[in-house]
């Protein structure tokens, strides 16, 4: 017996909320980056749950696309974070004013 759809959606909402709080409260760039990834994974859980509930593979197809985009975002984002950290010697969001001229 599989758990009902609502359990998966509550789990997904809890993960998304934790990620959103991490983005809004924390000032460390890497923690914000991980929180965004957590929010993407929460969306993936919801997509798979809906796909399973509707007996289609559409949710899984979207998850493959989201994981691909997240991998590209991780590569580019970590490169930008490393470049900023080398340039400013900090990874605090308040100190990242390199674009202000």
Element-level helix/strand string: HHH
Q: Please give the radius of gyration in angstroms.
A: 17 Å
CATH fold description of the domain at 27-90: Helix Hairpins
Sheet having the most strands: none
Q: Could you report the average pLDDT, rounded to the nearest whole number?
A: 90
DSSP E strands, number: 0
Distance between the termini: 60 Å
The helix content, as a percent range, equals over 70%
Structural category: mainly alpha
CATH class identity of the domain at 27-90? Mainly Alpha
Output the number of helix runs: 3
User: What is the second-level CATH architecture of the domain at 27-90?
Assistant: Orthogonal Bundle
Which term fits the overall shape?
A: elongated
- Beta content comes to under 5%
Report low-confidence residues grouped into runs of 5 or more.
none
């Amino acid at each position: 017996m599989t758990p009902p759809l609502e359990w998966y959606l509550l789990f997904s909402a809890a993960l998304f909320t934790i990620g959103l709080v991490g983005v809004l409260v924390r000032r460390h760039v890497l923690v914000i980056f991980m929180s965004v990834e957590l929010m993407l994974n929460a969306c993936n859980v919801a997509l798979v749950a809906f796909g399973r509930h509707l007996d289609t593979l559409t949710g899984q197809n979207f998850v493959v696309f989201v994981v691909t985009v997240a991998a590209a975002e991780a590569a580019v984002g970590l490169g930008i974070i490393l470049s900023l950290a080398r340039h400013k010697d900090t990874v605090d969001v308040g100190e990242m004013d390199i674009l202000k001229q």
